[in-house]
Amino acid sequence: MSDKTKNKSVLQANGLQATLAELKQEVLALYLADQIPWVVGYSGGKDSTATLQILWLALQDLKPEERTKPIYVITTDTLVENPVVAAWVDVSLEQMQTAAEEQGLPITAHKLTPEIHNTFWVNLIGRGYPAPRPRFRWCTERLKIDPTSRFITDVVKQNAEAIVVLGTRKAESSSRARVMNRLEQQRVRDNLNPHTTLPNAYVYPPIQNWTDDDVWMFLMQVKNPWGHNNKDLLTMYQGASADGECPLVIDTSTPSCGDSRFGCWVCTLVEKDKSMQAMILNDQDKEWMLPLLELRNELDIHDDSHLRDFRRMNGQVYIFKTKDGEEKKVPGPYTQKAREQWVRKLLRAQQYVRAEGPPEMSNIELISIAELREIRRIWVMDKHEIEDTLPAIYEAETGSPFPDGVLDETQIFDKGDLNLLHELCDGDEIHYQLLRELISVERQFVSNGRRRGLFEALEKAIRKNYFEDEEDAIQRALALKGRLDEGREKVDSLLDLHEMGG
Q1: Could you read off the pLDDT of 253-309 as tens digits, one per residue?
Q2: How many CB atoms lie within 10 A of CB 81?
Q3: Which of 96, 330, 369, 429 has the highest Cβ tally under 10 A?
Q4: Is residue 376 helix, strand or coil?
Q5: Three-class DSSP labels, 386-431
Q6: Measuring CA to CA, which residue among 14, 85, 80 is closest to residue 244?
Q7: With contact defined as beta carbons under 8 Å apart, do 204 and 166 qualify?
Q8: Are strands 193-194 and 201-204 parallel, antiparallel or unpaired?
Q9: Strands lying side by side in the sheet with 162-165
Q10: What would the pLDDT profile of 14-30 be if each residue is shown by its tens digit?
Q11: Whole-number average pLDDT of the chain
């Protein structure tokens, strides 16, 4: 799409009232055409707000008996959203639900969250996943796509089909325009694009041809029908110098957030969190967000190998060859020490925000107790870190005891026993980890009253920790890689001989 087409204002060309009247007519025709329920993506930003307003205003024109089809407004809370925006969205959803009931509209608001085992902190602090990178973008699907897909899938199961209404626009980017243009060619009905991944779901983008100016012109001149203040929304954008919002992500074709956007405050997929940075610089009342920005920047360092294990989660050491021919190891998950530091810093930041932030932040949960429970379980039961350090860290940073008591009553080793075991290993951390895991594995199988799989689990522990040290592990990995490369060369030679008739 050319820049000229991309920047053409629909509202300036046709006028606000004429454009709105035409869109409302389009919405009503689609709404009354069948009994397929609608799912509206709402992030609280300008595009989704404008989209929902148009739908809302159109429904107001219908007679009560014509408002038979449910409209589900969904927003995905990743649990690591910018706190200012998250608070804004929460208030908006409350007002939306109240206003819909008062006005007799079939609109219900739903806040979706990732399942506990999929949250950002459970994966990063619990399992040790490194901070997301473009080549290891483990967060988007778990935090955004999965909760949305589950909701839409449930609607489809109950109603055979669903129409997903989104505020996506071609003017967002050239790549977005290409995707939307391609989907238009696959339309099975007017104004409905096929969903890229979910069967029997269709996407309706009412403002697909609007520019940024169109969106703001509409929001500033048309009153929000559920009572939220659009001028406050503009102020929030201006304060963050944001040129876009983090959209409701329904599939991998949805564009990632830009450099200056509202979204996850921990996001390391962009060079800098310009929106949070701008909020702090532009408003002294938002200096309480500084610890969040500092923690985000600590996660986003170019070389974090000193924080990560030399082994992958399965215990293997992977070596790859760089473009310069250098052999380098692929670092694994965050070490136990690093994960303990991340949870300390996160709880410290949470305490600071509660004390120094505005009243609505007094009970903010940067990390929930449910997440901490799951992290603790992963550390002790899955990673065999039987020191069980999380309760002590929690109490040290918050001044309150951890809500739960002993995680595993069958645990027979106390802190003194483990210190003695550490001393007996004479500072050899790998051998200490091996003995600790062997003890933990044996105890788990005994307490569960079963023996099947015990020897396989013990063998797995030994394979992960049998190295003398990191250098020994790397040398073994290089030797294995050399043997594999040599084997591939022999196979290639045999294939060449076969092709030549040898």
Answers
A1: 444 443 335 678 999 888 777 778 878 877 778 899 999 999 999 999 989 999 999
A2: 24
A3: 96
A4: helix
A5: CCCCHHHHHHHHHCCCCCCCCCCCCCCCCHHHHHHHHHHCCCCHHH
A6: 85
A7: yes
A8: antiparallel
A9: 107-112, 71-76, 38-41, 162-165, 201-204, 193-194
A10: 899 999 999 999 999 99
A11: 85
Place of tokens 């004479």: 426
Asked if the model's pLDDT at residue 327 lies above 90, the reply is: no
Which contacts qualify for 325-334: CB closer than 8 Å, 24 or more apart? 327/478, 327/481, 329/474, 329/477, 331/130, 331/304, 331/305, 332/128, 332/308, 333/127, 333/128, 333/129, 333/130, 333/308, 333/309, 334/124, 334/125, 334/128, 334/129, 334/130, 334/307, 334/308, 334/309
Identity (one letter) of the amino acid at 466?
Y
Paired tokens of 321: 């060859």
For 19, the token pair is 């454009």
Q: Are the C-beta atoms of 147 and 114 separated by less than 8 Å? A: yes
Please provide the size of the chain in residues: 502
Q: Which of 232-236, 372-376, 446-450 has the lowest mean pLDDT?
A: 446-450
Residue 496 has pLDDT above 70, yes or no: no
Looking at residue 326, its amino acid is E
Rg, Å, the chain Cα set: 27
What does the angle CA 199 – CA 164 – CA 139 come to, to the nearest 5 degrees?
80
Alpha carbon distance 295, 345 (integer Å): 7
Measured distance CA(14)–CA(12) in Å, rounded: 6
260 within 8 A of 281, measured Cβ to Cβ: no
Residues 6+ apart with CB under 8 A from 44: 75, 85, 88, 89, 92, 233, 245, 262
> What's the predicted TM-score (pTM) here?
0.85
Chain-centroid distance of CA 374 in Å reads 17
pLDDT of residue 471: 77
Q: Give CA–CA dist 451/4, Å, rounded.
A: 71
Whether 33 contacts 64, CB under 8 Å? no
